[in-house]
TrEMBL record:
This is MOSC domain-containing protein. Gene3D superfamilies: PK beta-barrel domain-like. Residues 18-147 form the MOSC domain. SUPFAM superfamilies: PK beta-barrel domain-like (SSF50800). It comes from Actinomycetospora lemnae. Pfam families: MOSC (PF03473). PROSITE patterns: MOSC.
């Protein structure tokens, strides 16, 4: 089982990602305090440190997780990218269920923020965009149940 390794939010578009120890997830709305809160589908973006390590190898330099603009980072494993797949974050106060909407496509900002070629290195390694199906608190260290590939 994977765990939440890191959480980041940005209060507005283009603002730096801020690490947080926990965040409230609201069903149908997203992460409280994040720029995407209240959007239709882009509630949570999920990546994995294993996929970041592969991107680092392809890029030839570090790909810092906070610069990818993703909100939730798993400690290991593959992030499902098939629409409809679900991830369950097992918190102390209950589960938060996330549903994959689409694969997260790295944008041109990756080449600006990380370096030329970062976008290509993150291709097929950028994780997923999910919507929040059930409300609750997500905390660094929570277990995350990821469906088998």
């Amino acid at each position: 089982m994977s765990r939440v390794a890191a959480l980041y939010v940005a209060p507005e578009r283009k603002a730096p990602m801020v690490p947080v120890a926990s965040v409230e997830a609201e069903a149908g709305r997203g992460l409280v305090g994040d720029r995407h809160h209240g959007t239709r589908h882009r509630h949570v973006s999920v990546q994995s440190r294993d996929e970041l390590a592969a991107a680092t190898a392809a890029f030839g330099a570090s790909v810092p997780e906070e610069l990818t603009r993703r909100t939730l980072t798993l400690d290991h494993g593959a992030v499902p990218t098939t629409p409809g797949a679900r991830l369950v974050v097992r918190g102390e106060e209950g589960d938060v269920v996330l549903e994959v909407v689409r694969r997260a496509a790295p944008c041109r900002v990756m080449d600006t923020e990380i370096g030329p070629g970062a976008r290509a290195a993150l291709h097929d390694r950028g994780g997923s965009i999910c919507r929040v199906l059930t409300s609750g608190t997500i905390t660094v260290g929570d277990e995350v149940e990821v469906p088998a590939a």
